[in-house]
Each structure stands twice: as structure tokens, then as C-alpha cells.
Amino acid sequence: MKILVCVKQVMESESPVRINDFGRWISLSSSIRFEMNPFDAYAVEEALQIKEKITGSIIHIITVGPDKSRDVLSRALGMGADEAIHILDNRMDYRPPSLTASWIAAYAEDKGYDLIFTGIMSVDEMNGQTGPMIGQLLSIPCCTATIRTQVYPGQNHILVEREIEGGARDIFDIRLPCVLTLQTGINSPRYPSLSMVLRARKKEIAVIPAGSFEKKNPGVALQALHYPEKKNKGIFLNGTIENKVDQLIDILAKKALLV
Q1: What is the pLDDT of residue 259?
Q2: In 3D, which of 145, 180, 198 has the Cα closest to residue 44?
Q3: Residue range 162-173: average pLDDT?
Q4: Cα 189 from Cα 40, distance rounded (Å)
Q5: Distance CA 257, CA 259 (A)
Q6: What is the pLDDT of residue 25?
Q7: Quick one: how far is CA 161 from the chain centroid?
């Protein structure tokens, strides 16, 4: 089984978010800390568990981003991945999912991957589009919100359980190759062991300049970023329950919400 896992570097949740002077992206100050997108950690772990079940499986990790994005590749290698690929894109503004997906698909097209994993979305933009777009560009099946997988050694299909609205689940038997976007809770991502971290430091990461791919029309452009507008503060009602009811009725009547 040959597996490609797509990972992304995102800001840590506690890092301050400030819009840059151009109003087109965030200001990347030295105080900002980065980490692997938490959803992608589940994708790496699922690939590792499949590797443990099927002898001879190979896991490749790929990311798109600037030089510092290489840290997430090192973390994935420290978890147990075999090889890492960095599509180097040093732009300091918005990159639409369609562009990211086109580069990953172009790289993966002739590599013979049986499975391509992504997290269900990234915590910074929450588009949830990169995985499905990769599947579309490669003309292979894609299943989103995956919460369970069952692989069969020597078989060209995979059993997938998918979470849908209302707590219900879909079950599919999907032919390979395919793309799966993984939901939280599918597993418990492991921490890199010391021996694997030391191994990862010695591992060479393949770097591919984004400019080496055919230029694509991104199809979407970011016009501006702005902070959320301040809304009116809430009103606290005081007094007895009866007084609060009278106050509430009066407020609703003044706003013409009562007939």
C-alpha cells in the first residue's frame, strides 16, 4: 500500500492574529507560533496504522508552503512516515485551495499512490476543499468526513465509514486509488518518539519549487480582510422572575417582535 498524506502548517490557536498593513493577509510576526494542522495529524496516524497492518506499506508526506512549513514534515517523519515532499511556495498572502490541490495532484498524478489522505479541513481557513479537489483533478473517488477505514491486504478496495448529519453514518466500499478526508476521533495521533525524531533530522526532504508546476488560474482571489464588527452588548434583566418577564415583553414589544 502506497499512501500520500497531505499536511498543512497553521498558527497555534493561542497566537495573536493581526491583519497586515495591506489588509490582504495576516501579519506574520515573530510572536506567532506554528504547528501541524490538528486534523492532518489524524490523517498521518491513520496512514501509520494501515502501514502497521499491511507489510511493505510506504507513507509519503507532502505540504505546500514557505520554508518554515518544513517543520510539519519533520514532525510527520518523527511519527513514522517514510518520505517527505515540500512544495515550496514563499508567497505571503492567500493561497486558494484550488491552487494547493492542483500542485499536489500534479505531483501525485504519476506516483502510483493507492490512498491519499487529508484532514477534513484546516483550522485556520476551514474550507474543507483541498481533498475533494485533489480527487476531482486526479479523476479518482473521494470520501469526506471519514471516521473509520478497513483495508484488505492484496485487494484494490477499502471499506470507509463516513459521518453525516444527525449522527447517522454512511458505509462505502471504494475502489483504489481514492482520496479520503479524515474526521477527528478516527484515532488518537501518536507523539513522535525520540529515536524517530533523531531519524527525521537526518532524513532528506525533497523540495519542489511551486513555480515548476504549470500555471493555473486560481479561480478565486482574496479582496480584503477585516476584523469582526463590534455588536451591541447584551442586556441583563434584574429583579424577580415576574419583573424579568415584564421587562422582556416590553423590550420585544418595542422592537415590534410581538403581535
Answers
A1: 65
A2: 180
A3: 90
A4: 10
A5: 7
A6: 84
A7: 19
Instruction: Count Cβ atoms within 10 A of the Cβ of residue 189 and give its class: 0-12 exposed, 13-18 middle, 19 or more buried.
Output: middle
Please give the Cα distance from 46 to 238 (Å, whole number): 53
pLDDT tens profile 106-118? 999 999 999 999 9
C-alpha cell at 235: 442586556
- Domain 2-212 listed as CATH 3.40.50.720: no
**Cβ–Cβ under 8 Å, residues 122 and 8:** yes
215: CB partners within 8 A, 6+ apart: none
Spatial separation of the C-alpha atoms in residues 101 and 136, rounded to whole Å: 9
Please report where in the chains the cell 473521494 appears, as a residue: 142
Average pLDDT, the chain: 92
For position 258, what pLDDT does the model report? 79
Bridge-partner residues for 115, per DSSP? 3, 178
Give the start-to-end residue ranges of the domains of the chain: 2-212
Instruction: Return the closest-CA partner of residue 114 out of 68, 159, 179, 171.
Output: 179
Max Cα distance, the chain (Å): 73
Q: Residues 218, 219, 220, CA angle at the centre, nearest 5°? A: 95
Burial class (CB in 10 A: 0-12, 13-18, 19+), 15: middle
Residue written as grid cell 510576526: 29
* Prediction pTM value: 0.86
